[in-house]
Amino acid sequence: MEKKLRVGVLGATGMVGQRFISLLENHPWYEVVTVAASPRSAGRTYEEAVGDRWKMTTSMPESVKKLTVMNVNEVEAVAASVDFVFSAVDMTKDEIKAIEEAYAKTGTPVVSNNSAHRWTPDVPMVVPEINPEHFEVIEDQKKRLGTDRGFIVVKPNCSIQSYAPVLTAWKEFEPYEVVATTYQAISGAGKNFKDWPEMVENIIPYIGGEEEKSEQEPLRLWGKVENGEIVKASEPVITCQCIRVPVLNGHTAAVFVKFRKKPTKEELIDRMVSFKGLPQEMELPSAPKQFIQYLEEDNRPQVNLDVDFEKGMGISVGRLREDSVYDYKFVGLSHNTVRGAAGGAVLSAELLTAKGYIKAKE
Ligand SMILES: NC(=O)c1ccc[n+]([C@@H]2O[C@H](COP(=O)([O-])OP(=O)(O)OC[C@H]3O[C@@H](n4cnc5c(N)ncnc54)[C@H](OP(=O)(O)O)[C@@H]3O)[C@@H](O)[C@H]2O)c1
Question: What is the greatest pairwise CA distance in the chain?
Fold first, then answer.
């Protein structure tokens, strides 16, 4: 790429926003030129606005420290300064829907981490290795929004990334019934242990709205494009319990699966480790070389040992074995704020750029 694309991060001061800022440091295609947050932060330098809320283990990139934070709600001004934006604002669903559409209507592509548009029929919800063909509906969305350049693309919830890619790799064996329990990190709620001391040595068996997302969103990934809309798949049916556990980063899932065409364990491992998609074929900058790794040891995957596999963009699976009620069971692990949030969105943006959907404004 001759010249880097100019990127804005909406919600840049928050947990996911900070992850975007970190992942985009020294990105070969993108340069963060605009950071935007609530009116509380607007007008201050990024460094001042974040203050002691910096939650990354790496230090704040020098290139953003002195940027003046803009107000997310000043859409025209923010949009005029960038080629596209990543969105990680925490507002009500209706406010997020409206503001992301407002950005798209200015001719600014929006790659969003938020859930607000995940079920808007002409908004693709994409994991680049799984359903890049859903980008097709962007043309219909642009017509609806009355813009020839702007659009919204979203990524699915962090909880499904530990098992949806695995089930996709096994599609030929026709999985039809899945039971999953997720063990989710506190960073998924935008928190660390300092912000949420109640989570030390504790488990909370409730994460608002998470079970429905974990059951339904994989079906949308596996859906088809019909008449400019995405129609969700009907199988496999998934039932899920989501539990908050005292872990900083890394969502684990314990999963049971029934297949119509029961495979051998060797076949399942083979399909997982050989599974790849466009990001690997096109060698996109943030693509993990190995998307899914299989660990033979009985005590893996472990959060401490495996969450950063492929810089947090890969999925780790272990404990695959036959089950006495279901056909097989396994344990999956993914990094919730990298693959599950900002990293997944950056990879989507890279694929959109490589395919010509995102380019420099004239
Ligand atoms: N954490 C995760 O792993 C994860 C994963 C998937 C999805 N998400 C979703 O991503 C979004 C951000 O999550 P987060 O954990 O990063 O939240 P967060 O740490 O609370 O950050 C929220 C961001 O939104 C801004 N904001 C809040 N109210 C605003 C308003 N009224 N107008 C404009 N900007 C406003 C904040 O700016 P100020 O600093 O100025 O207040 C901050 O930049 C949420 O929708 C969340 O559900 C999070």
Answer: 61
